[in-house]
Amino acid sequence: AQSVTQPDIHITVSEGASLELRCNYSYGATPYLFWYVQSPGQGLQLLLKYFSGDTLVQGIKGFEAEFKRSQSSFNLRKPSVHWSDAAEYFCAVGAADSNYQLIWGAGTKLIIKP
Amino acid sequence: NAGVTQTPKFRVLKTGQSMTLLCAQDMNHEYMYWYRQDPGMGLRLIHYSVGEGTTAKGEVPDGYNVSRLKKQNFLLGLESAAPSQTSVYFCASSITRTSGTSTDTQYFGPGTRLTVL
Question: Would strands A44-50 and A32-38 be described as parallel, antiparallel, or unpaired?
Fold first, then answer.
């Protein structure tokens, strides 16, 4: 069965520091990978997605993610975080035979220290 | 465009009461989804619809019913609410299923916070 693991429930980063949020998935074929962000009290917004091609994907708000097939990972990175990046981040996996469903990770809450 | 809207934003029910959550989208999307979000569990799909008049069960459908009588609306019903249904409910829509095309982004509403006492 497909699964998504986000190992870190919370991460605290100083403003201006770099960020990496981890996402590992379990799926036999090539997955379709997504990162969404949820600001407090809001719905989810797509940051970036990977379907095929270049394994380094650029997204909105200065985020990028790298698909590493050998490690079954799709980690999200940002070189310098801003206070406005404080939010919860969700990784999700889909597939062509997933019957329309995305499998979601439990989320990582990002806290920014001033 | 308003995108995806949900009503109501908050609701408190007593056990056994019924209610309907309304989701509306103005993007002419074919696919619509209802999720629930619980702490530490991410999003779980309740029901989804691939077009007007069609619905299907997701991962956690028990205790919920849905209808898609109009393309732009997707209703989620709780016939007899239980405390286990206390959650935040999100509606989403997309043009197509997750199939590897650039049109597969899901667009989310702001959520409905439901408490069942």
Answer: antiparallel
